[in-house]
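Second attempt. The first submission of Thioredoxin reductase had a stray character pasted in from the spreadsheet, which I only caught after the job came back as garbage. Lesson logged: always re-copy from the clean sequence file. Corrected sequence (564 aa) follows.
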Amino acid sequence: MNISPPDRRGPAGDGGMPTDPYDRPGQTFPKLPPAMVERISRYGEPASFDGGDYLFEVGDRGVDFFLILDGAVDILESDGRDGHVLIITHEPGEFTGELNHLTGRAVLVCARAARPTRVIRVTRDAFRRMVSAEPDIGEIILRAFILRRVGLIQHAEGGTVVLGSGHSASALRIQSFLTRNGYPHRVIDIDHDASAQQALESFHLGPGALPVVILSGEQVLEHPTNRALADALGITEELDPDHVYDVAVVGAGPAGLAAAVYAASEGLDTIVIEAVGPGGQAGSSSRIENYLGFPTGISGQALAGRAQVQAQKFGARLVVAKAATSLDCSGFPYRVSLDGTETIAARTIVVATGARYRRLDVPDLARFEGQGVHYAATSLEGRLCVDSEVVVVGGGNSAGQAAIFLSGKASHVHILVRGEGLTDTMSDYLVRRIVESSAITLHPRCEITALIGEECLEAVRWREHGGAETERQVSNLFQMIGAEPNSDWLSGCVALDDKGFVKTGYVHDDRVAVAQHATSIPGVFAVGDVRADSVKRVASSVGEGSVVVHAIHGWLASLAAAAR
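This time the job returned cleanly.
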């Protein structure tokens, strides 16, 4: 059964997306000049393949980099029972690879020699050295890797299919996990897609098995957890319990990713631990317009994706779908326990687990989470809101960004706040845009009183100042109110304030200069939204993540001095 997208890359004038990387072959599939080919050859060894030989296959890890000298290499998507589907053919002067070749994760595609072919084969270790030592070549390759991943995502290539209902909380969770981790996939909605029944019959599945994830047209995962999905896709990292890192960053939001980029770029052995995927709370922002250097704005997920690639380029490892459950600071090196039985040892810990939105105190909230009640407003949730009314609860920047984004999809957006308005809690550019929009209505001095629906949210009732109640037919509600720190895993180790935020500013060994992010335990630092008294802004979090590396160097230097 073929469950691949039927139209893989139409030209831009025939329905293709103007930003489609496949319409930019000079950057996505560049042909390197002879001088660059010669320089790359110094890092690798010549190799030959007969026509039909595989250079690598779907699921292989730690795949080498191949530069084609003569012949041709077909890049293929595994289509399971029906064989393979051609994505692109690399000619002489071109090279294989996309982002998973940089990270060492399981690759998404196959590479097969189309005819007798000669290549330069560069191992992963040599590839990292080359990218660092040859920045002009590295820039071309990394840009191509990023664009190729974007192309795989846009064209739903890679052979991963999510089959389920658009109203299923589990199906939405799976899609969110794949999206947060930049993993290409195709969605078959059983409520609207005519091919859904055929897929169910082909794999002998009943409705009770949904949602399922189908990998390469063959492997079927029923109701997979994020951890099981990550394992099956090869996203998870293989950890050595005896290895001691210089830096373990817990949390891959803006603060954690910034710390990882700066630590790894300065030669520190760095690992990042993330429960779901890069982005943190900022990853739920559809567009951030006041972040330095992006005058037209950038989505939180795109910003996180770039930072992730940057950190991995410098050698940082990223562990996803494994949440930190506790920190053992009674001995040294410190140990972070992950859900399951694994632990990570490090000389320095950076706490960057951020904060989460508070939940409304309203009956039936949990029943509707993922089935009408959301905590993020990305394109994934936006698709659920087309031509219907939505409610956004909250008066901060995240709520404002969500309302503006959703106003382009929903028939109308209602913003509900308890206070008198937005000017005290939201950036002026967002307030002005909301006031000027005919598609958005602000309801001050309001609170939700009831969520109504059978299986999914169907209506929302709220009480206005003075006691009057309003009920609207609303199928999606977005909560973005306040913040609760993700600090439970630190209980019994570092000092927290009465709200659970990590207290910092401690002076150890008279090193006042690095006390700003120092916790009550020497060598354990906190940055970003999880830190008490921090400024809850993306730029501030990035700044803290970069600055803390100075404190890390000081701590590691004191350890080295003590050991002499």
